[in-house]
Amino acid sequence: IAGITQAPTSQILAAGRRMTLRCTQDMRHNAMYWYRQDLGLGLRLIHYSNTAGTTGKGEVPDGYSVSRANTDDFPLTLASAVPSQTSVYFCASRDRSSYNSPLHFGNGTRLTVT
Amino acid sequence: AQKITQTQPGMFVQEKEAVTLDCTYDTSDPSYGLFWYKQPSSGEMIFLIYQGSYDQQNATEGRYSLNFQKARKSANLVISASQLGDSAMYFCAMRGDYNFGNEKLTFGTGTRLTIIP
């Protein structure tokens, strides 16, 4: 089934450790996004990529980095995790050529930083 | 800056009744799009419905319709004949104008809907 795969599904991480959340899509979408979901705050954009080779900062980019080496993969890295990065992380993609195209989401990664 | 406001943190509705979930938005972009997503307790995000700012008619998708009032900057989701499976978190989101660099989706804080049997 076509879609977005995120890994891991969940993770407990010690503060100060480095962590990469993986995201792969097989829909050949040009645009990809990382959101974090926190209770009472909805979904907030961390980083995005409009096409392979380009990335941009979203609303809450501090402490996170991304890369987009190819169309399918969009990993999110926490260089040195802090407890405030405890959250559910969603990767999403869409076909940017159509304005009204919705975001397709992965199933999320639940990250706990202790 | 774009902003989405959902003022109802939680709602309880009797099964088979219609329910309206409120969403107001703020943007200065000349064109924009509004989306609704459903997030069941299993956690996945499900796209429900889209309304473009220049669409002449309100969007409908099965039991979902969007009550779009442009002058009031509101885009309320209406679910007719609610079912137990409609219990979920619902998010309103907006995409702004490409030409203004606002194409990224901005989400509201969500409304948790509980359908009572």
Task: Please provide a written account of the structure.
With 114 residues, chain A is mainly β. Chain A is 0% helix and 47% strand. In chain A, strands 2, 4, 5, 6, 9, 10 and 11 form a seven-stranded mixed beta sheet that branches. Chain A has a four-stranded antiparallel beta sheet with strand order 1-3-8-7, with no helix packed on it. Chain A is globular. Chain B has no helices and twelve strands. In chain B, strands 2, 5, 6, 10, 11 and 12 form a six-stranded mixed beta sheet that branches. In chain B, strands 3-9-8-7 form a four-stranded antiparallel beta sheet, with no helix packed on it. The termini of chain B are far apart. The relative contact order of chain B is 0.33. The chains are: A mainly beta (114), B mainly beta (117). The A-B interface holds A 33, 35, 40-45, 48, 58, 88, 90, 92, 96, 99-100, 102-105, 107-108 and B 4, 6, 9, 33, 35, 43-45, 47, 50, 52, 91, 93, 95, 98, 103-110.
Shape of chain A: globular
Structural class of chain A: mainly beta
According to DSSP, the number of beta strands of chain A is: 11
Terminal CA distance of chain B reads: 41 Å
Q: Major sheet of chain B: size, sense and barrel closure?
A: 6 strands, mixed
Uncertain runs of chain B: none
Shape of chain B: globular
Number of helical runs of chain B?
A: 0
Question: C-alpha Rg of chain B, in Å?
Answer: 14 Å
Strand content of chain A: over 45%
**Biggest interface pair, counts:** A-B, 22 and 23 residues
The secondary-structure class of chain B comes to mainly beta
Strand content of chain B: over 45%
Work out the oligomeric state of the chains in this entry.
heterodimer
